[in-house]
Write a structure and sequence with these properties.
Blueprint (H helix, E strand, L loop, with lengths): L9 E2 L2 E2 H10 L5 E6 L3 H9 L8 E4 L7 H16 L9 E5 L11
Parallel strand pairs: 3-4, 3-5
Antiparallel strand pairs: 1-2
């Protein structure tokens, strides 16, 4: 991909990341977090342009080449930090990592 963040590719006027976030939001009252690794600065700049109601929480994984479980842990930790720990009454939580998006070759 030439060093580009795949999640910032645009399809029909929306980045893949925005499409994913909008899809998650359409499911209902979900709390979401994006775990950033490679291209974090580019993705943060992209997120900064979004309206506040659409912008997900985001956290940076300082070692994105490590085990993917590290990113999942960081995302869950970011959500729990904002909700005082996970309880049965918590809203559903969704964690997704921008780096995990896969783009079909036909869209590139």
């Amino acid at each position: 991909m030439g060093g580009r963040a795949k999640c910032l590719l645009t399809v029909q006027g929306l980045s893949l990341l925005e499409r994913l976030v909008r899809s998650v939001r359409n499911l209902g009252q979900l709390t979401s977090a994006v775990v950033l690794g490679h291209h974090a600065v580019e993705i943060q700049a992209h997120l900064a342009k979004w309206p506040p109601h659409l912008t997900p929480r985001h956290v940076i994984n300082p070692a994105p080449d490590d085990d993917p479980a590290t990113s999942l842990y960081l995302g869950l930790q970011a959500l729990d930090d904002n909700h005082g720990g996970c309880q049965a009454s918590c809203r559903m939580k969704v964690v997704y990592q921008a780096a995990f998006l896969r783009v079909p070759a036909s869209l590139v």
